Amino acid sequence: MDKKVTLEALDVNNWLKVCDLSVSDEQKAFFPIPNVYWIGISRYEEKSELFAIKADNEYVGLIGGGYCRGCENDKGENDTGWINPLMIDYRHQRNGYGRQATKSMIKYLLENLRVTKIELGHRKVNTVAGYLYESLGFRIFDDEGDGYGRKLDLS
To answer: How far apart are CA 139 and CA 79, in angstroms?
Structure first.
């Protein structure tokens, strides 16, 4: 039976549980940032909303989203969302939780921020992330350095 995946706003009741989640030691080579760092950066730099990813009643990951910084058009309007981070704990990977959480975040950004595009990035060596994002319609628009920038057009 598939578990129901939901996003729960990060708050005083769940943030420590999310901080205990991690990718595998091997994955830290391309996803080295711990969740506690994402919590700090979401408040002071990226200004994104963070959500605990739950499968039924178990915390399995972290996802964030908000407006893309620096994506304003000529009129100063921002219709581009940003997803960052997406992390599924190593004990819960390969269960479709990342896919379901990303779909939920796309819906959240579309309905709450009224975006028409969503951008995200990942390291080139993270082929699993690349396959996931490609399968959800994100196309590469930036192929510089060690990472890809991807965009999903919702219009």
So the answer is: 17
If DSSP states are collapsed to H, E and C, what string results for 43-54?
A: HHCCCCEEEEEE
Q: What span, in angstroms and rounded, lies between the C-alpha atoms of 112 and 47?
A: 15
CATH number of the domain to which 70 belongs: 3.40.630.30
pTM of the predicted structure, to 2 decimals: 0.92
What total number of domains does the chain contain? 1
* CA proximity to 64, closest of 78, 53, 79, 48: 48
- Residue 103 belongs to a domain: yes
Residue carrying the six token digits 């921020």: 113
Mean pLDDT, contiguous 10-residue spans, the chain (155 residues): 89 94 91 86 79 97 92 83 96 96 98 95 95 98 95 94
Domain holding 87, by residue range, is 5-117
